[in-house]
Design a protein that fits this description.
164 residues, 2 helices, mainly alpha
Length: 164
């Protein structure tokens, strides 16, 4: 049992050694250890606050980027709408211009057709008149070859003159 119960001298010297160790550690090691722990605690707190600030900054930047995206989408939609309006207006103007030009061309073609028709009719009338004169001339030559036919024609013409 001697091994389990220490002697009083051993307890005394162990206590003295422990107190000297505590004094030496308190004098030389405790302050630097506490300072290192405080510095480490401060650096962790600074890192946490920096992380919190970074998180807040990231949130703010995300909100700003979302706002910019919304504005960009609205601007894109406006530009597309304006472009569509311009396209529609251009197409409408082109259709109207084509319609007006088509009507002008149709009117001009109708006038040209009428002019050609009048010229053709005039030419046909001239040809008919010429043919009629040629036929009349041939008929008269044929009828006037004989003296008795000439006298008969003159008498008929005289009768017509008197009747009118």
């Amino acid at each position: 049992m001697e091994l389990v119960t220490p002697s009083i001298g051993l307890v005394f010297w162990t206590t003295v050694s422990f107190l000297i160790l505590i004094f030496v550690l308190g004098k030389f090691a405790w302050k630097p250890i506490m300072k290192a722990l405080d510095d480490r605690e401060r650096s962790i707190e600074d890192a946490l606050s920096a992380a919190e600030k970074a998180k807040e900054e990231l949130t703010r930047l995300n909100n700003e980027s979302e706002q910019l995206l919304k504005e960009a989408r609205a601007e894109r939609d406006k530009i597309l709408k304006d472009a569509k309006d311009i396209k529609d207006a251009t197409i409408a103007d082109a259709k109207n211009l084509a319609k007006v030009e088509g009507e002008k061309m149709i009117t001009k073609a109708k006038e040209e057709i009428n002019n050609q028709k009048m010229a053709a009719l005039a030419e046909v009338k001239n040809q008919v008149a010429g043919l009629s004169l040629e036929i009349a001339e041939k008929v008269l030559k044929h009828q006037l070859e004989d003296k008795s036919k000439q006298e008969s024609l003159v008498n008929d013409l005289l009768k017509d003159v008197k009747l009118n």
